[in-house]
Design goal:
It contains 14 helices and 17 strands. By secondary structure, the protein is an alpha/beta fold. The strands form three sheets. A nine-stranded mixed sheet has the order 10-11-12-7-13-14-15-17-16. Strands 3-2-1-4-5-6 form a six-stranded parallel sheet. The N and C termini lie far apart (68 Å).
Length: 459
């Protein structure tokens, strides 16, 4: 009997931990990072998380992608302020995926890299009984969206969790916009809108050359191949599509078959010179898989896109643009408006806001400033316990919400927040009931928008 008990313990130790075995104990989450080709893979580990074991297993092909990832993790360990203590066990080889599935040293797979392979990674790891925390996008075309939907079905049957990293939900202005939109005394109700005047409009401007964790970001060359990275219309738009549902319909499952009507979409390139490509990637020449796409030695990179759709009867417009580099004194920009029958809730992040995300409340047509002021005072009093020091300032068109700096965590810190939330779901043994249908719907919207844009004829 003693020998049998020993055998059982050995077999158990070699199996992946299932969801109902998570208790929140220190070190019980054992991460496996698969083929990290995007800096987001490292940001999951920017800060130590008590529930995560300090040894992280990396499986990847050899090359610059994994080398850059290891360098980022080492920089977190070596920093003077709040250093981490990650211990990395790395396997590199062409059979990296199969090796991970055979060795099974962890119970949660982290994915952030080449998007052409990502949906297949998701499907295979879910099939093998691992929980998956994935960077966006989890699918870059309709064919992969179908496979992703199948992966979610398999995950449900096997009681496995698949979750994408929606960092923008942790931006304080997004949370405040969501909260205020549910207050009928202040906001009223979301208007129906039209193509020309959408109920929800979200746009952002990003830059290919940028700094992350204080260092110039080195993007892998495949990032500029839309067949590997995906087009912009299926990438950053994922966040904006997610926020359109999350802010307007919190806690509600959105069904792509009956709640979404796609209207139109478009995509266009940012033109990159060889010198700009070298500044971003470190490569002096375009690789072979990009050369056939060049026009006069300039790469048309299809990273820009826009789409219009109807969400539960309300018109939505989403757009994303990428420039090479921000102008002096510039930065990424974000704009979001939710139009209500009593007030409009507007997030601006431009030069006038010093590129800091800022929420404004402006009266709708026919509503007076005094009406909105009184309601805003009431709502912010309710929020003052959660956000001590919150207030507002009068503006020419309405009111600017003043939020203490301590509530602006920064984009890089949001990854730890997403991971914490995911690990809590593992402890609870379930995701919120609306998360999975909304992930399926979100990627339906982005991949269908790509199909429409490629056809160029709307539907």
């Amino acid at each position: 009997m003693i020998y049998l008990a020993i055998i059982i313990v050995i077999i158990y130790a070699g199996c992946p931990m299932t969801d109902n075995q998570f208790t929140g104990a220190p070190g019980e989450v054992r991460l496996m990072t698969l083929n990290p080709g995007h800096f987001h893979a490292a940001l999951v580990q920017k800060y130590s998380l008590e529930q995560v074991h300090p040894t992280v297993y990396i499986y990847a092909p050899s090359g610059p992608d994994v080398d850059l990832h290891l360098g980022r993790i080492e920089s977190f360990n070596a920093r003077e302020e709040n250093p981490t203590n990650w211990n990395t066990e790395t396997y590199t080889g062409e059979d990296y995926l199969q090796r991970m599935l055979e060795e099974r040293p962890g119970n949660v797979v982290v994915l952030a890299g080449n998007n052409r392979k990502k949906t297949e990674y998701i499907y295979r790891t879910i099939d093998e009984g691992f929980h998956v925390l994935s960077d966006k996008p989890m699918a870059i075309d309709l064919e992969n969206w179908e496979k992703l939907a199948s992966a979610f079905e398999k995950a449900e049957r096997n009681n496995i969790f698949l979750y994408d990293i929606m960092t923008e939900r942790y931006e304080v202005t997004s949370n405040l916009q969501r909260y205020l939109a549910q207050d009928e005394g202040l906001f009223g109700k979301l208007i129906t809108g039209s193509r020309e005047n959408p109920a929800i409009e979200k746009s952002s401007v990003h830059h290919l050359f940028k700094y992350v964790a204080g260092e110039p970001l080195r993007r892998p060359p495949w990032y500029f191949d839309v067949e590997q990275q995906g087009e912009g219309i299926v990438d950053v738009t994922t966040h904006l599509v997610d926020l359109s549902m999350w802010t307007a319909f919190p806690g509600i499952a959105i069904d792509y078959r009956k709640d979404i009507e796609m209207l139109d979409a478009d995509r266009w390139p940012t033109m990159l010179t060889r010198e700009q490509f070298e500044n971003i990637t470190g490569l002096s020449q375009f690789p072979g898989y990009l050369k056939e796409k060049l026009k006069d030695d300039v790469l048309p990179y299809y990273c820009n896109g826009e789409m219009s759709y109807v969400l539960r009867g309300h018109h939505v417009h989403i757009s994303v643009e990428w420039d090479y580099r921000a102008p002096p004194g510039g930065d990424d920009m974000h704009y979001s408006i939710m139009r209500g029958t009593r007030a409009n809730l507007i997030i601006r992040q431009g030069k006038e806001e010093n590129f800091k995300s800022t929420l404004y409340v402006e009266p709708a047509e026919g509503i007076t400033y005094q009406e909105i002021r009184g309601e805003l005072e009431r709502v912010l009093t309710e929020l003052s316990q959660q956000y001590p020091g919150i207030g507002f300032q009068d503006e020419e068109l309405g009111f600017r919400i003043e939020v203490p700096d301590e509530f602006y965590l920064g984009h890089e810190a949001h990854f730890g927040k997403v991971a914490d939330a995911f690990f809590q779901y593992l402890i609870e043994g379930e995701l919120p009931h609306w998360e999975v249908p909304n992930m399926i719907t979100k990627y339906f919207i982005t991949t269908m928008a790509r199909e429409i844009a490629l056809r160029g004829d709307g539907i």
